[in-house]
Specification:
single chain, 138 residues, 5 helices
Length: 138
């Protein structure tokens, strides 16, 4: 009797394994579909992340998106703005050249909204200045 039960178990196990191998290709895992965001929504959220003064994590939470997605959108925005034909215009105020104490003649400076200052000589190529600005932006 025990041999009969053992043989029956082996037969059932072999049938189950064979069925699983045959049906393996039919197994399909369906996950949640990714949400699609409009360019207007992306633009609005990225703009808020740069201008609101809130941490990026907080802006992402307010808009119901993951923080890594917002960082990716910000990076894409910076990459696009490096192209002169698509770059945003930034208001610039030209002042009379005045050599300040500790500042060499022919030196330029850019003061950011947060008060930080980037100083460089007039012989620095514009591409390098642009790259520095992109790296220093929050």
């Amino acid at each position: 009797m025990n041999n009969f039960i053992e043989n029956e178990h082996e037969t059932v196990a072999a049938n189950v394994a064979a069925t699983a191998r045959r049906n393996h290709a039919a197994i399909e895992i369906v996950g949640e579909r990714r949400r699609a965001y409009t360019p207007a929504f992306r633009s609005r959220v990225v703009k808020a992340s740069f201008e609101s003064g809130f941490p990026v994590r907080e802006v992402a939470r307010q808009h119901g998106i993951h923080v890594s997605l917002l960082y990716r959108w910000r990076q894409d925005c910076r990459r696009r703005s490096r192209r002169p034909e698509e770059g945003p215009l930034v208001p610039v105020r030209l002042a009379e050249p005045v050599a300040q104490e500790g500042q060499a003649s022919g030196q330029m400076e850019i003061t950011f909204r947060d008060g930080s200052i980037l100083r460089f000589g007039h012989d620095v190529p514009p591409e390098r200045v642009e790259r520095l600005i992109m790296l220093l932006r929050p």
